[in-house]
TrEMBL record:
It comes from Haloplanus salinus. Its EC number is 2.7.13.3. This is histidine kinase. Gene3D superfamilies: Histidine kinase-like ATPase, C-terminal domain, PAS domain. SUPFAM superfamilies: ATPase domain of HSP90 chaperone/DNA topoisomerase II/histidine kinase, Homodimeric domain of signal transducing histidine kinase, PYP-like sensor domain (PAS domain). Residues 264-471 form the Histidine kinase domain. GO terms for biological process: regulation of DNA-templated transcription.
Amino acid sequence: MNDRATAEPSSEYRALFEHVSDGLLVLDPESGAVRDANGRFVAMSGFDRDALTDARLDDLLVEGSRSEAPIQSLVDAADDGRTVEWRFRRRTGTPFWADLSASLADLCGEQCVLTTVRDVTERRRRREELGRFEELVEHVPTGIFRAPCDPDGTFLEANPTMVDLFDAESKVDLLSTPVADIYADGDDCRSFFDALAGRSVVTEKVELRTLTGDRFWGLVTVCRCENADGETYIDGAIKDVTETREYQQVLEEQNERLELLNRIVRHDIRNDMQLVQGMADLLDDVSGDGDQPHLETIRTRTKHVIELTDLMGELMDALVTESGENLEPTNLSFVLDREVREAESSYPDATIRTRGNVPLVEVMANDMLRSVFRNLLNNAVQHHDGDEPTVEVSADVEDEWVQVRIADDGPGIDPDRREAVFGRGEKGLGSEGTGLGLYLVYTLVDHYGGSVWIEDNEPRGSVFNVRLRLT
């Protein structure tokens, strides 16, 4: 117990002392010894009352979290009407932050320091988190601001990026600027705030202007908020997306040119080559035997050009389609069976068969899925090194995927070249193909979110595997 005897407090004092919602400590003003503690502080610290009244204030604090003379600091704070925030330790050893307010009092005829102890661990944690958040806002490379809901009102707050983004001379310069002034077009400003009136969050890409008159495209996201007094304001973020928009415009222009080229390739060139093909057939009746090799060469080359224009058109369609765009449930069995029949008709000397039944499933694709299987079947026959190629098609479902296998008995593909054959312009040695067919296969399957790869076939040849997601 303390070496300083104290008179027994009255029952009224004890009742008040115990019913205070905060922790209370009665401290000796000179030594800092604990004379008394209420039940709230006992529960807060975990120490029982006897242990507390055998302790000094120094013993209850985490070392390094307070001054060298804590009781004197507490008395000085009381004289100045201040509070102090120190870190206490619980009996279990875990620390907690507490806000201490003290007053000098005369209790039972003796002077003491009556100290209120309030656990502020959670408050301090939130304050530290807020500090980290504010530091992030200060350094994030995106403009962050607060403004009134009135576009004619001036900014209320802005981070340094906002100041730089709008070429303001200072933060004060930006804060004196009406929100409407940063819009390049007043109609865009009114439209934005009209949208905000009906929704709590609005995101739009609009043309903005700096305080010096330069224009740029910004991605603006604004949240409508309300403070405790019922006043509304907006918090927002602005990211400069000028380069992204310019790049998008370039892509759109390139796509337009590709589509124009696509129409020329598919219509004009294909029609002209079909005319040449027809004229070559007419010459059969008037040509001699010596002319037949030349006519056959014309027919072969013409057929190749027609196939090439079809392939180029399909490839351009694939290239101008954004990832994930225009995908829909597509019947795998219908598409695959049709392409197998087409291949059988085109290559009467080849044996093309389906092993087992193709699963009656739908995959995420589009009508260009036919090009995937057509090119793989054509590739299996055209790159065969014998007179009677055999191609076997099969498909199996596993979990959320279906795997289609197109196996041939050709010369096979060197493992070192298997990835390369799907690249732009790749083709086998001695091949007369364009090298675009397998590139189209890879492009389309990748667009569908699937994968394609090559394995060895036994005892000879290659297996092209296509893995597609089920709907």
